[in-house]
Structures are given as structure tokens and as C-alpha cells.
Design a protein that fits this description.
Blueprint: H1 5-12, H2 26-41, H3 46-53, H4 57-70, E1 91-94, E2 100-104, H5 106-116
Length: about 120
Amino acid sequence: MATTPRELRDLIGTTSSGTHRKHVPAEVKTETIRFAQRRLAAGATWAVVGRELALVPTRLRNWAQKQHKRRPSSVLRPVQVVPEARGRSELVVVTPGGLRIERVSVEDAAQLVRLLA
């Protein structure tokens, strides 16, 4: 498929005056969006990409947004399951005398209660 702005302009049917045909095939829009995403990732703005393709930047953004909405939301993506970290909890022990001990585990709190009783 097209890889340069000129090739994409030809596929879109953009004229030198910036006007273009009303219907642009989905495959051409997809390739145009891929090109735009590569340029955006390289630091270009929608305005720059629009000038390169002789398209109004809002039209490019609209194509990209519509394509994004068409993607299935139920796509499976790999995840990494990580065991839960067993650190200190948010448990706080306050003795009748006002001593406050924060972030202790349940086991440590039970041992403290036994020792302080």
C-alpha cells in the first residue's frame, strides 16, 4: 500500500486545490490513519500531517476516531498475573492509654494485644 504522502494523496484523490472526492475507500482511510499515527508518534501535529496529505486535520482526526470506535472492545489482551504483595496492612492499634501503633499486620496486632494485656 501507499507509504508516502504523495501516494496517499493520489489514493485519496486529493487535487492540487485541496478538494477531494467525497467517498474514500475504507482501506485508503486505514492506510492514511496508519501514516498519520506514525507521523504523530514522530512528533508531528495533526496540522502538519494534514498539510502533508492535503487534508483538513479535523477530517483526519474524525477518521481516526471513527476507526477507533469500530475496534471490538472485547479484544483479548495478554496480562501478567502478579501475586498480591504481603506487606504491612493499614491496621492501626490504639491502646487505652493512647499509644497509637500504625501499619501493623493482624498477626503483629494480636501479639501486641497479648503482650500489653
